[in-house]
Batch of 4 targets.
Target 1
Amino acid sequence: MNSLAIKISAAIKRANPEETCSEEIMQYALNIILNTLLTITASLVIGGLLNNFTETLIFYICFSILRICSGGFHLRTATACNIVTTLICVLTPFLLNFTGSSLWIINAFSLIIMFLFAPNPDKNAQIPLRWFPGLKMASIALVGFNFIIGSSVIGLAFLIQSLTVIPWKGRLKL
C-alpha cells in the first residue's frame, strides 16, 4: 500500500504543485485511506463468501465507531493491522454467538472497561485533553446502547475493541 500511496501522492503533486500539501503528508493520509479500504473490502468479501456479510458489516462498523471514540493500541505494521482486523471482523461474528445473561455480561464488561480506560488514544493522535470527557461519554453511551439492542455481533465488536483500550503492561508486539 505504501508504494501505491507514494505513486498517487507524486501524481497529485505533479498535477497541482502549487495548491497541494507536501508529498509526505499526502502519502501518510493515503496510506490510512488505502489500508482502511483494503481492510473493509477484504472483510466484506470474505464475510460474503462465508454467507456472513451482514454480520461482518455490522461488526466492522461498530468496532470502528467505538475505536474512533475510545482509541486503543496499534499493531506495529499496517500489514499486521490489516490481517488481524480482517480476521477479527470476519471470524468473531461467524464463530461466536451470545444471548441472554452471557450477552449482558459481555456488555457489562465492555462498559466497565470503557468507564475505566477510555479514551486511550494513540500517542500520535494529538487529541486535546479537553475532548477526553466527551470521548469517554461517547464510548460509554455506545456500549450502553447494546443493552437496549441486545445484539451479539455488536456486543462482540464492543468487547474486542474494549480490550484494545486497556493499557496492558508487556503486551504482545506484532
Note: The mean pLDDT is 89.
Target 2
Amino acid sequence: MNTRSKLKRPEAMIFDMDGTLFQTESVLLPAYHKLFDTLRSEGLYTAPTPPEERMLGSLGMLLEDIWKVVMPDGSEEAHNRANELLLQLELEGLAGGETLLYPEVKETLEALHEQGVKLYVASNGLEHYISGIVDTHELAKLFDGLYSAGKHGTLSKVDLVKLLLEENHVKSAWMVGDRSSDVEAGKKNELGVIGCAYAGFGNHEELKGSDVLISSFSELLKLYEEAASNT
C-alpha cells in the first residue's frame, strides 16, 4: 500500500453507494426476507430463504450476478421477479424513513462540497434505488452526477467510472468504495483509491491495492486536507 503522502489532491471524488455511503442492511435485509416470502407465495421458489450472509457478501456485483450467487437453484423467472421485487421493496423501505447513512457521511460530503470538490456516485445498483437513497437522505444538492449500471447499461464498474470521467471531463479523482470492484475501477482508470474498511460486507483482501484504507468515513476529509497539491 502506498503512503498517504503519495495521494494527490483531486478535483473530484467518486463514491460507491452500498457499504460506502449507505448502510445497505438497514433497507436490504427487511426487503430480502419479504422478497423470498413473496417468491414462495407466487410459487416461483420453494426452498428456505438463503442465508443473509450470502446476499451481503454479493453486494457490489451486478444484480443479475447476485441472484446466481444467492439462489443458484432458482429459475430465470425467479431471478427476474426477484429483480422487480427487490427494487419495489427497497423503495418502500426508503419511503418508510428508517434507513441509515454511515456516521458523518452527510457532514463530510458537505465539507468537501464547500471546498469545491466535485462529488459523484458510481454504483452497480439500479437507477431508482440510487436516486431514492440520495433523495431520502437529502444529498442531491451535493452531487454533480449519479451513475449507475442500471441507468447506463455498463457491464463493469471499470466501464461505468470511465464513462463518468469522460462525460464530465474529470482529470483527477479518488475512487472511494468497499469492494474489489471499486479498487479495480479506480486503478484501471488511473485514480487514487480509498478503501472503506468499516462496512464489513467483504474482507480486507477485497481492498488489496487501495492507496489508503479508512475505518470511518470522516477520515476522508482529513486525507483530502493533507493530500499534496497537484501543482
Note: The chain is about 45% helix and 10% strand.
Target 3
Amino acid sequence: MQEIRHRSIYDAIGGVETIKKIVDSFYSRVAKHPLLIPIFPEDLTETARRQTLFLTQFFGGPRAYEAERGHPMMRRRHLPFPITPSRRDAWLDCMEEALNEVGIEEPYRTVMFEKLTLTANHMMNTPE
C-alpha cells in the first residue's frame, strides 16, 4: 500500500508559491495569444490574482476565493465572454505549457490537467 504524504494536490505541489508560478507562466502566454487576448482585460493583474485564489481552492488549498467572491459559479461568471472550442483549446494549451514550465511532477500534473480540462469544457458557451 502506497503511503499518502499530502492531503491535497495543493500541498503536494508546494502550495501557493507554486500556484503563483503557474498563474504567472499561464498569463504570460495568454497575453500573447491571438485567440485569447480579445476576451481578457489589457491589465491582467486582477485576473491573475483571482485565478491564484481560484486554483488554490480548486486544488485543495484554503478557500480564499470563496471567502472573497462567494461560490465560484465559473460558468456563470464566464458567460459574458464568447468561449469557443478554439478558445478552450488555446486556454488549455497555455495552461499545459505553464504546468510543464513550472515543473509539476506526475501524477499531479496529469490530475491537475484533467481537472482543468473538465472545467474548460464546462466553460464553452459559443460555437466556432
Note: The mean pLDDT is 94.
Target 4
Amino acid sequence: MRIISGIHKSRKIVAPKNLPVRPTTDMAKESLFNILNNHFYFDEISVLDLFAGTGNISYEFASRGTEQITSVDQDFGCIKFINQTAEKFDMPINTIKSDVFKYLEKTTQKANVIFADPPYAFSEELFTRIPELVFQNNLLLEDGLLIIEHSKHTDLSNLKHFGYSKSYGGNKFSFFEAD
C-alpha cells in the first residue's frame, strides 16, 4: 500500500503478512479522498477509523494534515503496526485496542469523519449496528460523514441516514449523514 497524497505522498507501507486485514485498494482510496476533499479541509477535522487494520486510511488523513485521528481495532498486531508506523512517520494517530461495537457503545468521542472498514463477510445485522450506534450515540459532529466500506455485493441503501454510495472495482463506500 502507498500513501496517495500529502506530506508523505508516494511512501510505501508494507504491513506484516500475518495481520488479519484486507487494506483498501489504492484506486478506491484515491477516489474516496477525492470525494472527501470536496467536503472538508483535512487540517480542520477529526477522524475516527474503525476496524483500522493496517491503518491505511489513518495514514492518508495524517499525511493530508489531519491532527486528530483515532484508530480502533481489536487485533493487537494491527494496533502495534499502526503505532510503529505512526511513530516512524511522526503521525498524530491515537490507537485503541477494542472491539469496535463495544467501543461505539461506550465512547463519547465525536468526529467529523467516521470511517468503518469491517470484514466484508459481516452479516447485514452487523453492518446495520455500525450506523445505529454512531447515530444513537450522536458521534458525528455537525455536517460530518459516516463512511462504511463494503463489498459491491452488499447493499446498505435501506439503512437509516443513508445518503449515497460509490463503487470502485469490488469496493463500495456507503455515505451516511445526520438528518
Note: The longest strand covers residues 140-151.
